TrEMBL record:
PANTHER family referenced in this protein's UniProt entry, alphabetically: ATPASE DOMAIN-CONTAINING PROTEIN, DNA-BINDING PROTEIN-RELATED
Pfam families associated with the record: ATPase_2 (PF01637), WHD_MCM (PF21100)
Domain MCM C-terminal: 275-329
Name of this protein: ATPase
A molecular function (GO) term: ATP binding
Length: 350
C-alpha cells in the first residue's frame, strides 16, 4: 500500500521508482560502495530495502539515528551485532568471536576489549553481505576514522556497503570523497540521488493510493495537498494515511506535519548554541523571500545587529550542509515545504 507509513520493502508498494530501483540494484551488483543521497522523507530507506529484498542478498541495516546525540564506535558495533543476531546465518558467525559474551538478551560486547580490532573482525565476518549504513553523516561525531574503515572494506573485504544520508553536505564532508588525502579518494563509488516527485507524479501517487484503499477523494483536495506538500513523498504518504485511516482533514494534517518539522529543525539547531539565533534569522529571511546573499544579510543585520560576511557565509553553508536550504537559480530556498511553514509561523526557536 502506498500510504503505509512504514518504509516499503516490496516493489508493488513503492510508487514509480522503477528506474531508481534498477539503478540501485545494478550499483549494488557492480560497485563495492553505493551512495544514496536525498533529503529527509524522499524515500531513501524504501529504495534501499526494496532493492535489497528484490536482489535476495543477505544484508544488515544500521540506522545511525539509534546511536543518539553522542555516537561511539562501541555503540556502532552494538548495532551491527544486534542486527546480525536477527539473522540465522549471521548469528552463527557471532559465536566465533571471543570478545562477545552471551547474556539474557543475546550477544553483547565484553567490557574490556580492543574496539577497533573487534570491529574489523566483525566486518570481515560479514563476507557476502551488504552492509547498509543509514544517516551515516551522524558518525562524524565519533573519534574514529570511518573513511579508513570503508577504504579497508573496499580493498580487502568481500562486503558491499550502501551509505545513505539526508544531510548531504555533511555526508560529503564526512566521507571526503574529493579530498586527495582521503583514503576513499579515487575509489569507484556510485551515487544515486533521490529527488522530490514532479507535480504530476505527486497527484498520481495520491490518486492511486486512494484507489488502493477504496476511498473517493475530490481532485480539489488532492490538488490542495500537493500545493502544500509539494513532491515530498513522505509528507504525501502521511497525508494519505492520516486522511484515510484516521479521518483527519487536510488542514489538521498540515498542522501536525508543520509541528513535526519544527521539532526536527529545533533539535538539529541545538548544537549551535549562542549562534542559533543567526541560523533562525537566515531561515526567516529565506522563508519570507529574501533569496540573495545580500538581502539575507540586510535582514539578519536588521534582526540581530551587524554580522560580518564570513560569519554569515558560514551559517548559510551550514544550513545547506544540513539540507535545510539550497541554492537554486542564484537564490536560496528552503527545501522542505513544512519546514518553510514552520519557520513562517515562528515555530523555530531563536
Amino acid at each position: 500500500m502506498y500510504f503505509d507509513p512504514e518504509p516499503k520493502r516490496r516493489r508493488e508498494d513503492f510508487y514509480d521508482y522503477d528506474e531508481l530501483l534498477h539503478e540501485f540494484q545494478e550499483s549494488v551488483r557492480n560497485y563495492k560502495i553505493t551512495l544514496v543521497t536525498g533529503l529527509r522523507r524522499y524515500g531513501k530507506t524504501s529504495l534501499m530495502l526494496t532493492g535489497l529484498n528484490e536482489l535476495g542478498v543477505n544484508h544488515i541495516f544500521i540506522d545511525c539515528r539509534l546511536l543518539g546525540d553522542k555516537p561511539t564506535l562501541r555503540g556502532f558495533m552494538e548495532l551491527i551485532i544486534n542486527e546480525m543476531s536477527k539473522d540465522s546465518t549471521l548469528r552463527g558467525i557471532l559465536g566465533r568471536f571471543d570478545f562477545l559474551e552471551v547474556g539474557a538478551l543475546g550477544f553483547r560486547l565484553k567490557v574490556k576489549l580492543k574496539v577497533r580490532s573487534a570491529l574489523l573482525s566483525i566486518i570481515e565476518g560479514l563476507s557476502n553481505t551488504v552492509l547498509v549504513i543509514d544517516e551515516a553523516q551522524l558518525l562524524r561525531n565519533t573519534n574514529y576514522r570511518f573513511d579508513e574503515l570503508l577504504a579497508y572494506i573496499y580493498d580487502h573485504v568481500n562486503v558491499r556497503v550502501v551509505i545513505s544520508g539526508s544531510e548531504v553536505g555533511l555526508l560529503y564532508r564526512f566521507l571526503r570523497l574529493n579530498d586527495p588525502e582521503s583514503p576513499l579518494y579515487g575509489r569507484s563509488i556510485h551515487e544515486i540521488r533521490i529527488k522530490p516527485l514532479p507535480r504530476g507524479k505527486s497527484m498520481e501517487f495520491l490518486r492511486r493510493g486512494f484507489e488502493q484503499v477504496n476511498v473517493k477523494v475530490n481532485d480539489d483536495v488532492i490538488e490542495r495537498a500537493v500545493n502544500e506538500l509539494d513532491g515530498v513523498i513522505g509528507w504525501l504518504t502521511m497525508f494519505g494515511y492520516e486522511y484515510t485511516r484516521r479521518g483527519k482533514s487536510l488542514e489538521e494534517i498540515i498542522h501536525e506535519a508543520t509541528l513535526l518539522a519544527a521539532s526536527e529543525v529545533n533539535k538539529a539547531l541545538e548544537i549551535h548554541g549562542a549562534a542559533r539565533a543567526r541560523f533562525v534569522a537566515v531561515l526567516e529571511s529565506v522563508a519570507m523571500g529574501s533569496s540573495t546573499w545580500g538581502s539575507i544579510k540586510r535582514y539578519v543585520n536588521a534582526r540581530l545587529g551587524s554580522i560580518n560576511d564570513t560569519a554569515l557565509s558560514n551559517v548559510i553553508k551550514s544550513l545547506m550542509d544540513m539540507g535545510l536550504i539550497s541554492k537554486v537559480n542564484g537564490g536560496y530556498v528552503i527545501n522542505d515545504p513544512m519546514v518553510k511553514r514552520a519557520v513562517s509561523n515562528g515555530l523555530i526557536k531563536p
